[in-house]
Design goal:
By secondary structure, this protein is an alpha+beta fold. The chain is about 25% helix and about 45% strand. The chain has three helices and six strands; from the N terminus they run βββαβαβαβ. Strands 1-2-3-4-6-5 form a six-stranded mixed β-sheet, covered by helices on one side. GO terms for molecular function: L-aspartate N-acetyltransferase activity.
Length: about 120
C-alpha cells in the first residue's frame, strides 16, 4: 500500500515523494515531497505529485490527502494546481519531539495545513 519515487536529472537525485495507503478510509497520503532547491520551478514537484495521483487512481483509492508545514506560498499553490483543496489549518501544530514548553511555544509557532483531493465518491 505504499510507494516511493525518486526524480533523477542528469544522473542526480533532484526530488523525492512517497505515497502511503490507508485502508481504513481508502485514502493515499502524499508524504515527504521534496525537490532540491537548485531545481525548483522546473515542474519536478508537479510531476512527482502527478505520479502519486496516478498511483492512487490505478489502485482505486477514493482520495489523496496531505499535511504540510510549508511556509512558502509556492508549495500551497502547487497543491492547489494539482486539484487539492485545503480542508483545515492549525496555528498550534507541534512537531514530533517538541515539549510544548512556554519557550518553545513562543519561538516555534508552526502553521499546519491539511489538503484533500477527492478522486471518487465512496
Amino acid at each position: 500500500g505504499s510507494c516511493f519515487w525518486v526524480a533523477v536529472l542528469d544522473g542526480r537525485v533532484v526530488g523525492i515523494v512517497a505515497a502511503q495507503g490507508h485502508e481504513d478510509d481508502n485514502t493515499v497520503e502524499l508524504r515527504r515531497m521534496s525537490v532540491d532547491s537548485r531545481y525548483r520551478g522546473k515542474g519536478i514537484a508537479k510531476a512527482l505529485g502527478r505520479r502519486v495521483l496516478e498511483y492512487a487512481v490505478r489502485n482505486n483509492y477514493a482520495a489523496v490527502v496531505l499535511g504540510t508545514t510549508a511556509v512558502k506560498l509556492a508549495a500551497h499553490k502547487l497543491y492547489e494546481s494539482l486539484g487539492f483543496c485545503r480542508t483545515s489549518q492549525s496555528e498550534d501544530y507541534r512537531l514530533p519531539g517538541m515539549s510544548r514548553s512556554p519557550l518553545e511555544r513562543f519561538f516555534f509557532q508552526i502553521r499546519h495545513s491539511r489538503y484533500r483531493l477527492q478522486l471518487r465518491e465512496e
